[in-house]
């Protein structure tokens, strides 16, 4: 009976070599058999005893395969953007030849609204960067090529530093001469020289020579200026450029007008002081003032739907939105972002606080997706967190109005014919006068004032 000695590992190695040879890559075929030594071998059975021809038996000393196929190099494309975003700028975090682990960020694409991180789909080595740093890309554009290695190899350890040579014997240094002995502290005043009794000779003014004028610097030599000042330039990032462009477009397109009012924050402060601890215990959320203004804005937007509408300049139509999506402005180191709290009309205070907290955390960690900021029918900007007393916000297109909140200050106000000190806040509503009339804007802002000053208005739908 004829037997063929086999090794499972060896079979896999031979299989890889054959496939590689079929692809026309002889070099890789030779690499795939690295560490395998052997030759064809036959074995015979004679009277139930195995007789082996040792000169022709496969022997496997060790097995190590590093076969690399052509499909091991993958091309990573730009992720798809939202409909409102067409392109972005690439900022590379890795270079060609760098080793990356799976899900490690390779580059960051800065769009008009946020930054999108592109991770490595698998562990490997960056083989090529297909877009220059700072280049513009669209969704689906090839970004880089990655050669997969199965696992990110550990970085080679640096060679152990050779022990430092023994320090040379210090040369003898001559001892410094001892300092002179200090003079004894005088105990008596020094003698005053006698004043001469002879008159002092005086000279006429004309005989006194004027002091020499300072020599002027020769021409051509720059005189160093004291306290020289300098300046430096920094290129605007894409988000800042887009913010500037959108605000200028809003200024050029909308007929912006601002109306003001003031809100007595006494009741809402008292409500927060009484219920903040039970609210935190039940919902694990802090009760703030923003949820009251978001809910009051949704209440007023439903009462005045024209403020929630927008003009379609292409078709010359007014688009009424039957839903309320409120953008809440958040300041980040990269610029101002406006994540959207959606369907506010169906939310309670706890739902709003949770949504604001989650969006704020994502904004601070630079993890906001484009979908988090897309849309929005109305915006609230809270400059009061920075101590703002008064201001006129600019509309966030394609919306038609924006509410500006400001800081709370104790001010004397007339209440029932008496002067009382109350915590007061100025609020401002900037609106597009092409669509919203003054009567509707003032009515809208008074609705917000009534709902914040007495939250029972929301419960009674007054």
Automatic annotation (TrEMBL):
One of its GO terms (molecular function) is dihydrolipoyllysine-residue succinyltransferase activity. Keywords: Acyltransferase, Lipoyl, Mitochondrion, Nucleus, Transferase, Transit peptide, Tricarboxylic acid cycle. Its main location: mitochondrion. The keyword rRNA-binding does not apply. Residues 162-196 have a biased composition (Pro residues). GO terms for biological process: L-lysine catabolic process to acetyl-CoA via saccharopine; tricarboxylic acid cycle. Its cofactor is (R)-lipoate. Its EC number is 2.3.1.61. Residues 213-224 have a biased composition (Low complexity). Residues 154-197, 213-233 are annotated as: Disordered. Pathway: Amino-acid degradation; L-lysine degradation via saccharopine pathway; glutaryl-CoA from L-lysine: step 6/6. Residues 73-147 form the Lipoyl-binding domain. It is an enzyme of class 2 (transferase). InterPro entries: 2-oxoA_DH_lipoyl-BS (IPR003016), 2-oxoacid_dehydrogenase (IPR050537), 2-oxoacid_DH_actylTfrase (IPR001078), Biotin_lipoyl (IPR000089), CAT-like_dom_sf (IPR023213), Single_hybrid_motif (IPR011053), SucB (IPR006255). It comes from the Eukaryota. One of its GO terms (cellular component) is nucleus. Belongs to the 2-oxoacid dehydrogenase family. Dihydrolipoamide succinyltransferase (E2) component of the 2-oxoglutarate dehydrogenase complex. The 2-oxoglutarate dehydrogenase complex catalyzes the overall conversion of 2-oxoglutarate to succinyl-CoA and CO(2). The 2-oxoglutarate dehydrogenase complex is mainly active in the mitochondrion. A fraction of the 2-oxoglutarate dehydrogenase complex also localizes in the nucleus and is required for lysine succinylation of histones: associates with KAT2A on chromatin and provides succinyl-CoA to histone succinyltransferase KAT2A. This is Dihydrolipoyllysine-residue succinyltransferase component of 2-oxoglutarate dehydrogenase complex, mitochondrial.
């Amino acid at each position: 009976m004829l037997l063929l000695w086999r090794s499972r590992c060896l079979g896999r190695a031979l299989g890889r070599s054959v496939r590689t040879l079929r692809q026309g890559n002889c070099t890789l075929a030779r690499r795939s058999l690295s560490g395998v030594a052997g030759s064809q071998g036959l074995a015979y059975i004679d009277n139930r005893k195995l007789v082996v021809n040792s000169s022709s038996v496969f022997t496997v000393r060790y097995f190590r395969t590093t076969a690399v196929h052509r499909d091991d190099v993958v091309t990573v494309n730009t992720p798809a953007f939202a409909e409102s975003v067409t392109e972005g700028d690439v900022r590379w975090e890795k270079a060609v030849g760098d080793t990356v682990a799976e899900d490690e960020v390779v580059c960051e694409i800065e769009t008009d609204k946020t930054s999108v991180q592109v991770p490595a789909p698998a562990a490997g080595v960056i083989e090529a960067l297909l877009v220059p740093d700072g280049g513009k890309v669209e969704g689906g554009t090839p970004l880089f090529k990655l050669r997969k290695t199965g696992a990110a190899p550990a970085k080679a350890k640096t060679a152990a530093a050779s022990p430092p040579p023994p320090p040379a014997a210090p040369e003898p240094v001559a001892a410094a001469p001892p300092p002179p002995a200090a003079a004894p502290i005088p105990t008596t005043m020094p003698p005053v020289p006698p004043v001469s009794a002879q008159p002092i000779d005086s000279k006429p003014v004309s005989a006194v020579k004027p002091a020499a004028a300072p020599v002027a610097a020769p021409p051509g030599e720059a005189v160093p200026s004291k306290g020289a000042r300098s300046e430096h330039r920094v290129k605007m990032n894409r988000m800042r450029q887009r913010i500037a462009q959108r605000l200028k477009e809003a200024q050029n397109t909308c007929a912006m007008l601002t109306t003001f009012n003031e809100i007595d924050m006494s009741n809402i402060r008292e409500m927060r002081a009484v219920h903040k601890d039970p609210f935190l215990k039940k919902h694990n959320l802090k009760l703030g003032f923003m949820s009251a203004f978001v809910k009051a804005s949704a209440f007023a937007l439903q009462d005045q739907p024209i403020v929630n509408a927008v003009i379609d300049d292409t078709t010359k139509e007014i688009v009424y939105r039957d839903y309320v999506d409120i953008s809440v402005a958040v300041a980040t180191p990269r610029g101002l972002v406006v994540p959207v709290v959606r369907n506010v009309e169906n939310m309670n205070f706890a739902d709003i606080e949770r949504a604001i907290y989650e969006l704020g955390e994502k904004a601070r960690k630079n993890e906001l997706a484009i979908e988090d900021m897309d849309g929005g029918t109305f915006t609230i900007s809270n400059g009061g967190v920075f101590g703002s007393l008064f201001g006129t916000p600019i509309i966030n297109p394609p919306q038609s109005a924006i509410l500006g909140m400001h800081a709370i200050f104790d001010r004397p106000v007339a209440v029932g014919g008496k002067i009382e000190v109350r915590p007061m806040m100025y609020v401002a509503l900037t609106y597009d006068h092409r669509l919203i009339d003054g009567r509707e804007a003032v009515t809208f802002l008074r609705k917000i004032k009534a709902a914040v000053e007495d939250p029972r208005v929301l419960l009674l739908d007054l």
